């Protein structure tokens, strides 16, 4: 898919808004490796607040885009994150479900407004973030051993990460063992150190295909 700067955001008909650089590179890599159509543009908004600001600005345009997708971390409460999305759209005629779809939510276009899509990392059901998604791209036995090592490091006071970032510590511990050690998340997918064909990656790809596919859907 085209890679665009944020300055180009308002000129694009099909957009995917993401929180940060890692999200941008992970999703770009999944699309490239999975051979998804290059029919939408990803924008790194820099934070979750900036994602909401960008969404609001795009919906207020005289000629809004055709499709806007949004990827956000669920953080520690999926229900709270989903309610924040519902609150943001309460003044628009969209009909959002009471809870996010486990396969990724798609909201039909209404009046002159775009089709919308929402994915809450990691899987629209559980609390977490991008790294919890990427954790499920690593081999099960390898990430389990990385988790064991992280726990031991914590118990021996070798680690100072906050508990909310445990999945980050585990994923990057696993990546530190690979050739090349410490490769970034997106590059790790391209190199297939993180596998792009696991169940969660396939579900995410299916959501993207459904969101940016035929407009009659």
**Low-confidence blocks of residues:** none
Q: Beta-sheet strand percentage?
A: 5-15%
Structural class: alpha/beta
| Biggest pleated sheet | 5 strands, mixed
Helix content: 40-55%
Largest sheet strand order: 2-1-3-5-4
CATH fold-level name of the largest domain: Rossmann fold
- Provide mean pLDDT, rounded: 93
Oligomer: single chain
Element-by-element helix/strand order: EHEHEHEEHHHHH
Shape: globular
Helical stretch tally: 8
Describe what you observe in this structure:
With 217 residues, the chain is α/β, with parallel strands linked by helices. The chain folds into two domains: 6-129 and 197-212, Rossmann fold, CATH 3.40.50; 130-190, no CATH class. It is built from eight helices and five strands, in the order E-H-E-H-E-H-E-E-H-H-H-H-H. It has a five-stranded mixed β-sheet with strand order 2-1-3-5-4, sandwiched between helices. It is globular. The chain starts with 13 loop residues before the first strand and ends in a 5-residue tail after the last helix. The model has no long low-confidence stretch (mean pLDDT 93).
